[in-house]
């Protein structure tokens, strides 16, 4: 049996749930395909500990593919991230009170890493299943981008493909605010379809999915 590691984050800022963890915990133990099982793990929302925790899970599970997920506050769809950048620039403190400004994720590391997942095929698979999805050109500069960068850095040059997905708030988190959200069962199914497409696709589809600015 092979393993696909999916991570989600603990709540942060003002929220008392994080939809990324609420969704991936429902996929823990699910058979993705013949002989491939999803294992879900929760990461702390802290610059000092999230990367360590991710590395421990990778060492323990030796997964065949790794997809980290997080809440993208204000996102309206399942956002498949294209690129992780070598910058921490926190607008708010993390859960340990740390707020790095303009520091590198990895001293002397490359400016950026691309996702090694078939991002266009993943967007198409989620949309075909009836959920909104798009390629996102930035994972921000907070803990999600840091984890995404550390993940790509750790697995660079290996056969283990990896990437990052941001998900929207849940409807109950945005009541009366006019902010976008997505129901939990749709996030769960959207993630499952995205992960399945990533697993089954070795050459990405050519589909328009960029942004003008
Ligand atoms: N979202 C934050 C960190 C944890 C999470 O779920 C981010 O986008 O950086």
What does this structure look like?
Helix 3 crosses helix 5 (184-200). By secondary structure, the protein is of the alpha/beta class. The chain has a seven-stranded mixed β-sheet with strand order 2-3-1-4-11-5-10, sandwiched between helices. The protein contains five helices and eleven strands; from the N terminus they run E-H-E-E-H-E-E-E-E-E-E-H-E-H-E-H. The mean pLDDT is 97. It has a single domain (2-200), classed as Peptidase C15, pyroglutamyl peptidase I-like (Aminopeptidase, 3-Layer(aba) Sandwich), CATH 3.40.630. Pyroglutamic acid is lined by residues 9, 12, 18, 20, 45, 70-72, 140, 142-144.
List keywords for this structure.
two-stranded antiparallel ribbon; globular; Aminopeptidase; seven-stranded mixed β-sheet; binds pyroglutamic acid; 213 residues; alpha/beta
Distance between the termini: 43 Å
Strand content: 15-25%
Pattern of helices and strands:
EHEEHEEEEEEHEHEH
Shape label: globular
Low-pLDDT stretches: none
Largest sheet: 7 strands, mixed
Order of strands, widest sheet: 2-3-1-4-11-5-10
Relative helix content = 25-40%
Give the bound compounds: pyroglutamic acid
Number of strands: 11
Layout: helices, strands, pairs:
Blueprint: E1 2-9, H1 19-27, E2 31-33, E3 36-43, H2 50-61, E4 65-71, E5 78-81, E6 83-85, E7 88-89, E8 101-103, E9 112-114, H3 119-128, E10 133-136, H4 143-155, E11 161-167, H5 184-200
Parallel strand pairs: 1-3, 1-4, 4-11, 5-10
Antiparallel strand pairs: 2-3, 5-11, 6-9, 7-8
Helix pairs in contact: 1-5, 2-4, 3-5
The structure holds pyroglutamic acid.
């Amino acid at each position: 049996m092979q393993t696909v590691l999916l991570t989600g984050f603990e709540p942060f800022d003002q929220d008392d749930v994080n939809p990324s963890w609420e969704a991936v915990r429902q996929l823990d133990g699910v058979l993705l395909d013949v002989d491939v099982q999803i294992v879900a793990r929760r990461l702390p929302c802290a610059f000092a500990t999230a990367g360590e925790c991710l590395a421990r899970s990778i060492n323990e599970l030796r997964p065949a593919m790794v997809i980290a997920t997080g809440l993208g506050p204000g996102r309206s769809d399942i956002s498949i991230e294209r690129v992780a950048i070598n910058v921490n620039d926190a607008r708010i403190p993390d859960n340990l009170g740390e707020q790095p400004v303009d520091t590198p994720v990895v001293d002397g590391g490359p400016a950026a890493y691309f996702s090694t997942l078939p991002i266009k095929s993943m967007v198409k698979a989620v949309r075909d299943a009836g959920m909104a999805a798009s390629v996102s050109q930035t994972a921000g500069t907070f803990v999600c981008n840091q984890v995404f960068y550390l993940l790509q850095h750790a697995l660079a040059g290996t056969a283990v493909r990896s990437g990052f997905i941001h998900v929207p708030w849940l409807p109950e988190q945005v009541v009366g605010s006019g902010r976008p959200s997505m129901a939990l069962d749709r996030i769960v199914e959207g993630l499952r379809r995205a992960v399945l497409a990533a697993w089954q696709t070795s050459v990405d589809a050519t589909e328009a999915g960029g942004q003008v600015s």
